[in-house]
Write a structure and sequence with these properties.
- It contains 9 helices and 10 strands.
- With 313 residues, the protein is α/β, with parallel strands linked by helices.
- It has a domain of 108 residues.
- Strand 8 and strand 9 form a beta hairpin.
- Helix 8 runs antiparallel to helix 9.
- The longest helix has 21 residues.
Length: 313
């Protein structure tokens, strides 16, 4: 597989197929060629035989669903421990300006340093060092005879900092599995699998009609992953002749890049904003009107897709 860094060694007829290199150079396309690639890489509809269909929501089912959520949240709130995070102050964090490039670099260093730390697999309420709520974590919960610690606010214990902290507190996935093997009941406070499958199904349907976009004005949009490669399903395997006329290729900088073949394809990536009412960027004043995200009202088809998605997820 050819790499961009070895371009000087490539013959003019070489075709680059590495997914990362293809995605990076696809992001640099302009005009009709970019439109052609994005159209060919549209998000496909999900397979009806692979993912559960989104169930229709009757009024009765919605009431039962909300009742169950309220009950489960009450249990979570009653039995889930609270931890304070030292050196974290939500007032200071919320008053910070938009992240600078320097701030992003520092944040990435912290992320890189923590990449191999143990993961916490148990539910928790996290507060700053002053006891102000920061995050609610809905995960696994080991149901014990002891209802757990009840200390909250400034009386809540601090969460230890370190790569092995969850293990020392018996909060890793291994600890959860060991507790289950010993006969203790494990409660899943998170999103249940059937509902998660419905949400994944509906989200893919939405983005088939409401194409995800990447805005160059928003630094949070990652242009490295402009296309995502995936394996075609057996019923989707294409005839090799389909791509004979360059349908699966594009040219950039004098080189040819292939984003699909008979066994693999690519789909576009991006961001979709579904906010009913917010201020336009740079217009947050008392006279600025609240507006819905432009992604919700691009055209009539998108508006219908968004309305269906919000009603069914």
């Amino acid at each position: 597989m050819a790499k961009t860094r070895a371009h000087h060694n490539l013959s003019p007829s070489a075709t680059i197929t590495d997914p990362g290199e293809v995605a990076r150079h696809a992001a640099q396309l302009r005009g009709a060629e970019k439109s052609r690639v994005l159209k060919a890489a549209a998000v496909p509809l999900p397979a009806l035989d692979d993912i559960a269909l989104v169930r229709s929501w009757s009024a009765g089912r919605e009431k039962r669903f909300l009742r169950n959520i309220q009950y489960n949240v009450q249990l979570w709130n009653k039995h889930t421990p609270t931890y304070r995070i030292l050196n974290a102050d939500i007032d200071i964090l919320s008053s910070r300006p938009k992240p600078s490039n320097e701030g992003k670099i520092e944040a990435q260093k912290t992320i890189d340093a923590m990449v191999n730390w143990q993961a916490d697999a148990c539910s928790a309420k996290f507060c700053d060092e002053n006891g102000q709520p920061v995050a609610a974590y809905f995960a696994k919960r080991i149901e014990r005879r002891s209802a757990g610690q009840r200390r909250v606010g400034m009386k809540a214990p601090t969460y230890p900092c370190g790569p092995r902290a969850p293990g020392l507190m018996d909060r890793t996935l291994e600890a959860v599995e060991a507790a289950a093997a010993s006969g203790l009941k494990i409660v899943n406070d998170g999103i249940k699998d059937p509902l998660l499958k419905d949400a994944v199904f509906a989200t893919q349907v939405l983005h088939h009609y409401c194409h995800p976009e990447k805005s160059k004005r928003d630094g949070r949009h990652d242009f490295e992953d402009f296309l995502m490669r995936y394996r075609r399903r057996p019923d989707e395997i294409a005839d090799e002749s389909t791509g004979e006329d360059g349908e699966w290729d594009f040219n950039h900088g004098g080189l040819t890049y292939r984003f699909a073949d008979e066994y693999e394809s690519s789909e576009r990536t991006g961001v979709t904003h579904l906010v009913h009412a917010w201020f336009m960027q740079g217009h947050k004043t008392s006279k600025s009107p609240l507006k819905p995200s432009s992604d919700m009202i691009r055209n009539a088809q998108v508006a219908q897709a968004v309305q269906w998605y919000l009603a069914d997820v």
